[in-house]
Design goal:
This protein has 2 domains: about 80 residues, no CATH class; about 150 residues, no CATH class. It is built from 9 helices and no strands.
Length: about 240
Amino acid sequence: MLPGMSSNENWFVSLLANIFLPILILNKLSSKLGPQLTVVVALLFPFAYGAYYLAKNKKISPISVLGLLNVVVTGGLALSGLSGIWFAVKEAAFPALVGLFVLFSSRSRKPFMQALLLNPQVMQVQKLEDNLKQRAAEQDFHELLVVGTRWLSLSFFLSAVLNFVLAARIFTPLDPNMGEAERSTLLNEQIAHMTGWSALVIVVPSMILMTILLLYLLKRLEKITGESWQNFMKS
């Protein structure tokens, strides 16, 4: 689950509408639709999802805001003719912002890790809360959530660094003497190249780190509750 996603939100649909479809459109359709129309089409998906989420839940979807910003910034850089280091900065900025969001939540009453662990769709939240209350371990559990949230923020900062390094190598400066069509084609190839490599270079290490963190949290949860973490999972 990403920061800002509610526990009952369909994360697959959210990521598809707000992140993956806009990226796919920007990568594949600009040569057919033109850069301006491509940006407009890519914006429709996070905008439509965000409007639906707002109408249903009476609040703004943060993941839709991130999706809109991603399309606007990526499309804006492409339309303005900028390349190279600016795309590297953009690629690093978004995971860094998410990391800051997660880090700041650790100082609130509801650290982000609370939304990740206390998901009523997969965990018997009431049973866990009763156990913590009985053992007077609410503060220990809250401190565990704070520590987990801070470590989770590091995974996003790691993604930001890896994003910047990878993007700096892929988004090389384009010859200013190129024609607009050739320049647009090469830039789209770089964007597609970045998308493909990011899955291997960025997503895999981040997922490994998050898996290790989750296993650590579950082991600590067992010590705090005196029970196996599996006893609190829904069957």
